[in-house]
Each structure stands twice: as C-alpha cells, then as structure tokens.
Here is the input.
Amino acid sequence: MTMFAWTAGLLAVAVLLPALLVLRRRLTVVVVSGLSMEPTFHAGDRLLVRRTGLARISAGDVVVFETPDWLETGEPLPPERRWMVKRAVALPGDPVPDSVRPVVPDRRVAPDRLVVLGDNLSASFDSRQCGLIDGGTLLGVVLRRLS
Here is the structure.
C-alpha cells in the first residue's frame, strides 16, 4: 500500500467516523410491537426514528415514547415493549380531543404533554385510556419504515 493510499484511508476514517457517531445519536431503529398502528405499521416493522424533543413534533407525526412506568409489571420490559409507537394528535396548548376528555377533563393539553392515539383505534392502548403523555418520555419522530 502506498503512502498516499494509507493517508487517504486514514483521512476517510477520520471524516466518516465522527459523522457516523453524530448520526447514531440522532437516529435509531425501533421495532413495532402489537396491532395499534395498523394499517400504517404492522408488528415486526422496523422504523427509523429521529431523536427529537416535543418542540419539534407536529400534530399528525408518528412518535415513539417510553412505555409509562405504571404499565410495567415490575420486571424489566423486553426491548420490543420498551417503546410505544402512536400518532401525536394534540400538542401543548391544543384543545383536548373529545375522545380523550373522559380521562383528561382539561380543555387544553398541558405544557410538556401530548395526546397520542393509535391508528387502529379498536386495538390501541393510548391517551383515551392513559391520558396525557409526558413529553420527557419522547424518543422521537418516525421518519420511515425500514422493513
């Protein structure tokens, strides 16, 4: 190997490695578990998720957030159940949808909270049962299905 080829290879690694590390921090993959997002997503689908906070979410985005603690059984959750995938339908300051009002009597979504619903309403555990979701549990927004 020539000195030029070795230097070029080292330079490529020096440039690409930091870029890959930045992408790894910003992007992750989550696997769908359950029927709540059908027909949009199915159990086993792998989703590319951009890590982001509540301020960058729009109503209608499909979001991923941590499973609420009170849903856990006391045993560690398997990786496929750590995250929930739902559609954000109302953000801080938005009116609370009528379907969620029996659980959330407030007229507006509280700061740092959001309302989520599954696309398959008959098979979804969402804000209609558990109320507002804490924005601090948000992992990010789904960019696309990978498989």
Q: What stands out?
A: The radius of gyration is 19 Å.
